[in-house]
Amino acid sequence: MGICTSKKKVDENIQIVPYKVCITAFIWNKESHNLFDFESNQAAKKEIELDFSATLSMVDNQIIALTDNEYVNKQIQLLRVDCQQEYMMLSGMSQKSDQRVWAILCNRPDFESLNEWELQKGDMIKLGRMKLQLLDFNYEIDALQQQKEQVENDDELQSKDLELEASQCRICFSKSGSLSNPLFSPCKCIGSMKYVHLNCLQIWIQQQIKIKNQQSSIQYIWKKMECEICKMSLQSTYTYQGQIFCIMQIQKPVVPYMIWKITSDDKSKEGIIQVMELLDKSEIKIGRVPDCDIKLKDISVSRSHAIIKVIKQEDNKYKLILQDNNSKFGTLLYAQSDKLLRYELQYQQKVLYQIGRVLLYVQLKEKGKSYNKQFTCYRHPNQIQVFPKKTINEQATIVPNFEKDKDNQLSFQTHNELNQDDIVINVKQI
């Protein structure tokens, strides 16, 4: 039957901290595309407390905390809780879209969370089944001119021929690259076909793009992009060292603008890059109805789902403030910032997280006189059998659905980021 570790005394290798991590979880039915209806009361409430670093998992609709030396059959890993003496950090366990850690923007009587969030370049938000990533944002005219001049300077600093014979563009056969036009590997091709210039790929890919001009905005729409040789699906954007490379030729306005990448959980739907001019705009509406500035044609998106407020500051710079508009499924923000994931006793924040079909609240509480380094406040549920790990092969892992997520299993697409071996700039691979 195995060993059930329900005793309160813990192994001496486990560090007990002087505070309790109090977790409240709400679990709802599977058949909802991982969307939580804030207007319903169908979620089961679970509560646990722990005082050591652990992996938070769901087993048979129960939430449990497992150390690195424990595993449970058929668990779904949700969240890593790293407890230090002075603070606690949260981190996600999966890069799959439906298992990422999302912070929810909402303000409802039963579910209090963030009221607003200042958007930064690279932030990703989720509205129903639609995902939006802020690729670029510029509100300074002088900075736009400087950016253009910087690109021209980068082109003048193109490198000499690379020493590696294979490191050449498969389209133009040149071996030089620059910061604005690097050689990179966007697919599974190897050898002399591995690398391609960003600009060369942009010219080739433009044949598969539909461009739609709207009032004060342009949309670049694609259905499917793939390598003509290895047939691997291409991402529309890649990230390397904090810089986002887009494989489409995007015309940036000479006036203040923002650029959004719009995709859907429904793989059959089109992807969109939307470039918006921001002259005299103080508010940007996102929703399903025609009068929204960013229109999302999906029934899971509310008619007026969210609002972005454009606020001018004293230094003549601008900031973008995202707010939910009492939407049915909430406005979700991909939790990457320490502001969302770090907790301290002196600074209590209230953030509602969503991971799959689970909502989570986290709160720290002092133990006071009950603090003892040898005993934990946590107990496993009696009905859950927890086993000690014996070998690396016995570790409980999430078994991926390769048919459903096959595009996410290839090359670097899991993280949508380029590795050092995937990009060449200035005579060497970096």
Automatic annotation (TrEMBL):
Residues 284-333 form the FHA domain. Residues 134-161 form a coiled coil. Residues 161-237 form the RING-CH-type domain. It comes from the Eukaryota. One of its GO terms (molecular function) is zinc ion binding. The keyword Metal-binding applies. InterPro entries: FHA_dom (IPR000253), Znf_RING-CH (IPR011016). SMART domains: FHA (SM00240), RINGv (SM00744). Keywords: Coiled coil, Metal-binding, Zinc, Zinc-finger. Pfam families: FHA, RINGv. PANTHER family: FHA DOMAIN-CONTAINING PROTEIN (PTHR46210:SF1). This is FHA domain-containing protein.
